[in-house]
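Q: Hi! First time doing this. I have a protein sequence and I read that you can turn it into a structure. Is that right? Here it is:
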Amino acid sequence: MSLILLVLGLFLFVSLVVVHEFGHFIVARKCGVQVEEFGIGFPPKAWSKKLKNKMIFSINWLPLGGFVKLKGEHDADTKAGSFGAANLANKTMIMLAGVAMNLLAAFVLLTLLAWFGMPQIIDNQYTVKSNTKVIQSDVLVGFIEPDSPAAKAGFMVRDNLISINKNGVSETINKAEKLPDITKKYAGQEVTIIYERAGTQKQVKVTLLTESVVKASEKNNNPKGYLGISPADYSLQTSTWSAPIVAGGLIGQFTKATFQGLGRTIGDMFHGNGAKASEQVAGPVGIFVLLKDGSLLGYQFVLMIVPIISLTLAIMNVLPIPALDGGRLFVTWLFRIIRKPLKQKTEELIHGTGFALLMVLFVIITIIDVRRYF
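A: Yes, that's right. Below is the predicted 3D structure, encoded as structure tokens:
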């Protein structure tokens, strides 16, 4: 089941790129700009077909995104049906269409999740309390201390803790904050822990650490837990009439969090703390690992990741980064404001340099992801 969800997540991720480029495609056509090619992935080309409207549809080998090639993409082009010949308002709409489609995709997916089951992944996650119902509440295994009772018992991250049993008495684990009190109660004793992994219920006998060992570890500045894990609450909640409101609120909340994260990353880079900055970014490898791990939690978590990625794509493409939509729009407007023609050579230099730097950044992030996860 988790493999199917992983494939679904990867398919939806690629679909976000297609949705983004479709936005450019449909608005360009509406504005009278001819689309010469619609490509999924980046060249070299794997397969292509020329359609009746003379547009080429292609699938390319590098699955890093996608593109729409417009006739006369440079601002200085003047031929009829070219992007360059379009007025500034139409150019703005065409360049922002991908962002709009990613925002729409995020809104639709989050609305559906709010109807069918929204995972709570951050503290104080936006919701309409009067129209929210918790349909699932689990306590998952988070960090596992090396050489702890949990590690020796074979627990894995994301195992769902159900109960701790001793002498026929069962203690239900329904909140992460309850676990320390329960394990302290049975300190030094052998207990049976019931848990669930990948939909299958299991049980294991574990001998918890004694109270003296735990207290001694606190004095040595190396605190240990009786079981040796950091639990985390994971819940699903549904809404009815407020689902679209929840989706809109979450988009605002995640957008704010994204800009705050970008600010911290840029701040760390300027202060020479590249290692800390790298911890806050992820590329395709990191996204793959996130989808792989998330698939173990069910389809709701996978579907939650996808609109967040879609929203991130929208945010990155609205920023004035050369080669991306926001950068192209910024440069176009800048030259209009200063009343200077944007020559083809100048435009190619700006965005070509930006694209090259983005590819270098992509390689660096990929290397960081591989070292982090493998």
